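B., you asked whether I could sanity-check this one before it goes into the benchmark set. Here's the sequence:
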Amino acid sequence: MVDPKQSESIRAYIKSVEGSEITLDSGEKVTILKGDVKEKKEDAILIYRYQLV
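And here's what the prediction gave me:
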């Protein structure tokens, strides 16, 4: 869950990192495939897909 007031800025950030390779806290490297913020009533949920590399 994300703060609904921040959903637009989070959406912009996750879109900006699509296709980027990042390192998780576990040390594994992943490529962010796509992501978005889904809004329903008063809730906002960050949903993303990644691929281990």
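One thing to flag: Residues 4-52 form one domain. Otherwise nothing jumped out at me.
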